[in-house]
Amino acid sequence: MKKFLFTGVFLACSMNAQAAQEPTICASILTQSHPFYIALNEGLKAGAAEYNADLKVSIANQDLSKQINDIEDCITKNVDAIVVSPVDSKGIRGPLKKAERANIPVFTVDISAEKSNIISHIATDNYGGGVEAGKLAAKHLNGEGTVVMLSYPGISSVEDRLRGFRDAVADTKIEIVAVQPGKTREEAMTSTINMIQANPNTDLVFAFGDDMMIGASLAVTKQNSHAVVIGFDGMPEGIKAVDDNENIIGVVKQDADRMGRTAIKVAVNYLNDKPVEAQYPIVPVLYTGK
Question: Where in the numbering of this chain does the Periplasmic binding protein domain appear (predicted)?
Answer without folding.
Answer: 30-274
